[in-house]
Amino acid sequence: MHRLEEALESAAPGRERRWRDEVMSGLVVLGEATAQEAENADRPDSLLSDIAHDQPRLRNRVRGIRTQYQQLHERIEGLERELRQPQDAAPDFSDLRQRLTWVLTALRHVRARESDLIYEAYYDAFKADLS
């Protein structure tokens, strides 16, 4: 995430190719990480699977988190494809920055939801806070 943010914040006009390459590099790393996260979330031996199995009232939230990870991964793949397309004109930097910032914000949101779910499941199971 930090690598992509750095690339997005760098100057683009006059260095379009380099800017796009840096953004693409950060996006590829983020895409790999979200693919792995989505895959891990769906594994039958994952923490999310344990929560869904052991605490049925939390199943819908587990399903929502899994769905959000998958949607984010698909969105990142779509942006990667878009950036790989040959472009005759300079890309709309402002638009790309805004769309990628949305993806980063959505990723932070789903990670926070996952953390909340894990802490809630822990508290429900053990009636104690994590230290």
Spatial shape: elongated
Backbone CA Rg: 18 Å
Q: Biggest sheet, open or closed, and with what strands and sense?
A: none
**Are there runs of 5+ residues with pLDDT below 50, and where?**
none
Mean pLDDT: 93
Helical proportion, percent range: over 70%
Which structural class do the helices and strands define? mainly alpha
N-end to C-end Cα span: 27 Å
Order of helical and strand elements: HHHHH
Helical segment count? 5
Strand content: under 5%
Query: What is the total number of structural domains?
Result: 1
Let me know the number of strands: 0
Describe this structure in words.
Helix 1 packs antiparallel against helix 2, helix 2 runs antiparallel to helix 4 and helix 4 packs antiparallel against helix 5. The chain is mostly helical and 131 residues long. The protein contains five helices and no strands. Helices cover 79% and strands 0% of the residues. The longest helix is centred in the C-terminal third of the chain and has 34 residues. It has one domain.
What's this, in brief?
Helix content is 79%, strand content 0%. With 131 residues, the protein is an all-alpha fold. The longest helix has 34 residues, at 93-126.
